[in-house]
Design brief:
heterodimer; A: alpha+beta; Ubiquitin-like (UB roll); 3-stranded antiparallel sheet; elongated; B: 65% helix
Chain lengths: 98, 338
């Protein structure tokens, strides 16, 4: 990263709930000086057409993420556990809606 | 609003240094993912040249959105009715939003916002040449919506499938909002052509005469003069060539012009039954390169306005940051005392 970013406002990740009953979903990021400003700006940047009923903002530096380089090691072990899916079990036609 | 400059300006040559076996293996795996139609995410490994190409394209696209606010912003206080003023305000605000989505997408590639702004303000980065033309009368605002945003949409829709996922996601959002831009422009021209005085109708024709060719130039140089297109298409950064998009735009626009009752300023424009497409006249590429290289009618004015806004806002940015630091210190002291 550049050395001239000391005066850059910190980066925030924005999560928006489209409507009551749904999850908050990541929709992008923005720069803001503090949390209050981040919320106000998130409203203006990401919900200009009533896309939201609730917003979360979190400092990007606070996000802890899995390592994409270890994606295989991390997620592949679930690949052979087909018995975790309902379709693994064959049942008689008459009660197969179970 | 738009991207074209993405394929113009200084290009980064692929690195010619000798690659390690490990790097070659990673590159092969990357190429295979692209070939399989996979999306690339921010933290995934990617070749340096792919990263640089994207940073240049996305940041130039972002700059275009930001500079694109200036020609229209000129007319906010002069809009003929409150309705048109509210529409124009909403559109200009959208352009700011689009710029922000795109800067964020570019930042995921490891470049900072300040670096990108610095490149814009120092004149190092390009933005779409279209914004270096002046908006002389109110009909220009309608024509920008119709032709400039129309050309932008043509260009941007394929980018929603760009292999770099953060860019593709930003483009989906942009495209969803952009269609109002084109429709409001065309509708305002319809009203002028239907209810306007002879003078107002002449304004529409005048605006079309001035914007038509620059709009065609928005698609960038002809394919034969776009040496980097092939690599971008192979990488899924670009999906359709400049000439294909330009042709599509001309074919879509001709019937819209007819309905409006205006003439597109090209005597060579005619339907070619054999090609099932319109033939059109030769674009003045010398003009295009003049404008790209800083000699357009409004280059200095646009960049000057942009730099002034940035510098005039410096104290606000500094004050907000200092306020945030002060609040954080106060909070920490309170917590310590408790």
């Amino acid at each position: 990263m550049s050395s001239n970013t000391q005066n850059e406002w910190p980066l925030w990740e924005v999560f928006v709930r489209n409507k009551a009953g749904l999850d908050h979903k990541h929709c992008g990021s923005l720069h803001a000086a503090d949390a209050k400003m981040a919320l106000q700006m998130a409203r203006d940047v990401y919900t200009r057409r009533q896309e939201g009923t609730s917003i979360w903002v979190v400092l990007s530096s606070q996000i802890v993420a899995s390592d994409p380089g270890e994606k295989g090691m991390y997620f592949d072990p679930m690949e052979d556990k087909v018995y975790r899916h309902p379709t693994f079990y064959e049942l008689p036609e008459s009660i197969n809606h179970m | 609003m738009y991207t074209q400059a993405m394929s113009v300006g200084p290009q980064d040559a692929p690195s010619s240094k000798i690659k390690s076996a490990d790097e070659m293996q990673r590159e092969a795996a990357f190429e295979a993912r692209i070939a399989a139609g996979d999306f690339i995410e921010a933290k995934d490994w990617m070749p340096e040249h792919y990263r640089k190409t994207l940073v240049r394209q996305i940041s130039q696209h972002a700059h275009s959105e930001i500079v694109g606010m200036l020609p229209e912003g000129n007319w906010i206080t002069r809009a003929p009715t409150l309705k048109r003023k509210a529409i124009l305000l909403a559109k200009v605000q959208d352009e700011a939003g689009h710029g922000l989505y795109l800067y964020s997408a570019a930042e995921t590639l490891g470049t900072s916002r300040d670096q990108m702004l610095d490149a814009l303000h120092s004149g190092k980065a390009k933005y779409s040449s279209i914004f270096n033309y002046p908006t002389l009368n109110w009909a220009d605002i309608g024509v920008i919506g119709w032709l400039v945003d129309g050309a932008a949409i043509m260009n941007q829709v394929p980018l929603c499938r760009c292999s770099y996922a953060p860019y593709a996601r930003a483009m989906i959002r942009v495209c969803r909002e952009e269609s109002f831009h084109q429709r409001q422009g065309y509708e305002s021209l319809l009203v002028m052509m239907r209810d306007g005085t002879a003078e107002q109708k002449a304004m529409v024709q005048d605006a079309v005469n001035r914007w038509w060719w620059p709009a065609l130039m928005m698609f960038g140089p002809e394919d034969k003069d776009s040496p980097n297109s092939e690599q971008s298409i192979r990488w899924g950064i670009k999906r359709v060539t400049n000439d294909q998009l330009r042709q599509k735009f001309v074919d879509a626009t001709v019937p819209q012009a007819e309905l409006l009752g205006i003439t597109l300023p090209d005597p060579d424009l005619k339907w070619n039954a054999e090609r099932e497409a319109h033939d059109f006249g030769k674009i003045d590429w010398a003009e295009f390169w003049r404008v790209v290289n800083g000699e357009g009618p409004m280059n200095r004015e646009r960049l000057g306005a942009r730099v002034k806004a940035w510098e005039d806002g410096a104290w606000v940015r500094d004050a907000a940051l200092e306020h945030a630091r002060k609040q954080a210190r106060k909070q920490a002291m309170k917590e310590q005392a408790a």
